[in-house]
Amino acid sequence: MQQAIEIGRFITFEGGEGAGKSTQVGILADRLSRSGRPVFVTREPGGSPAAEEIRQVLLSGQAAQFGPLAESVLFAVARGDHIDNAIRGALQQGQWVICDRFIDSTRAYQGATAGVPRGLINALEKITVGALLPDVTFVLDIPVEEGLARVAARAEGQELDRFESQELMTHERIRRGFLDIAEEEPSRCAVVDASQPEAMVAEDVWETVLQRLNP
Fold this sequence. Notes:
Layout lengths: L9 E6 L5 H14 L4 E5 L5 H12 L7 H25 L3 E5 L2 H11 L4 H11 L7 E6 L2 H12 L12 H17 L4 E5 L4 H16 L2
Parallel strand pairs: 1-3, 1-4, 2-3, 4-5
């Protein structure tokens, strides 16, 4: 008799620019792998061939001329393809999916900051995401100026992308947007102080995974 495949877990990392999301995604993926869990690492926008093409349009700023509503729709289209062609299949195979950004980035950037109505964002989520919400979402929180300083140091003269180059007050609203989401959904979201040393952030993340998901 064939053994049933365990459904995987879905973890997302959110936060403003320079919060260290990609670094913590990598650390957690390695830790889960060493504990014997199959891991699939992905990102948004992107994560599937078609969604990666949309990513280039969004991050280059080509879509900005059409306004935040159009950007929200493009993010939703990319997310739908990402779910259908990557995330859902990995979960059904029993993998632990770790995604760098997901629905909360759209809520914070296009919704809370750019003014796209929450009802419209909810409608797009219903179409593309449905019931496929993360088991845990880590909101990596860092003071805006510190996060942007990290981005500038990392760029080393390279051009910043569409979202990294926004004004300071815009980044402050984005930060507030993420914190508001975490406050509204404490059972899903865990806020982590990302201004700590990298290793301490990773320990906070791991402790939360142990407590909530028992890997």
